[in-house]
Write a structure and sequence with these properties.
The protein contains 14 helices and 14 strands. By secondary structure, it is α/β, with parallel strands linked by helices.
Length: 340
Amino acid sequence: MKIKNLVMTVAAAGLIFSAQSSVAGDTLASIKKKDSVTCGVSTGLAGFSQKDEKGAWSGLDVDVCRSVAAAVLGDATKVQFKPLTAKERFLALQSGEVDILSRNTTWTHTRDTSLGLNFAGVIYYDGAGFMVSKKLGVKSATELDGANACIQAGTSTELAIADYFRENSMKYKAITFDTSDQTRAGFESGRCDFLVSDQSQLYSLRIGLKDPSSAVVLPEVISKEPLGPVVRQNDDQWFNIVKWVVNASIEGEFQGVTSANATDLKANGKPGQKRLLGSEGDLGEKLGLSADWAYQVIKQVGNYSESFERNVGQDSPLKISRGLNAQWNKGGILYSPAMR
């Protein structure tokens, strides 16, 4: 029996490797041929990736997809969005169903080393936290011993909460759901005492409650959850493109380049601005893209600050402060390597 199981395991691993190898390689050429980027997003999370009543997608994760399309195809609208649950997301990327996964996904050691995937940067520094009903009168997560927890299955939050309760000699009962909407509904119906998720998601889920004021987010942040886009391994060019598209958005904010002034600065800006926007240097050539790839990203989608404030910040219903996601010289840890 043990030998049979081992053979089956080796065979399964071979199939997975074969499947990954068949889709790895020249992603850029494939995208140019079909003239669109296929992007895996969430099934609906306010501020990150959600579809309105007209079918239009918006959010911080969605802006990454649009930025990649702007850089590669010169048109931020050339994106096909694929809604994925947390359990579906990695297989969809591994199998080639999507070109990039931009779905509030935490960068971890295991995911980066054992799934045949590469994380291309961080677009939101987050951490797991707790949301409880105000009527419980709970002020701290340390008061949740023996409580029921609503958790979305297939997320890094599952291990984070297990570690936290174990470290604090507490117990809990996990009630899992496939989607964030189901998790919120379970919490709202009283199936659990608290909901645990990344803090950014807690704010998103809270505004979706019938009465957002009925719930409170507790102060504890129990884990590090750096969120960012993911691509397949064995395609260094595509990995570099997505990575530097993320960096261009961050660097654009740092250098004061916005969607409104990008055209002027491309012609009349400082050396660093002109290099970023492609009127000087050869950054585009090194990526296999046009000289104005970063200009297209910022002109069509905006720099990081524009995307943040529009989707999750002060210009959005979430009203999340920049915090750790402020630039490194403004009290945060957001940082792009030099664009030169």
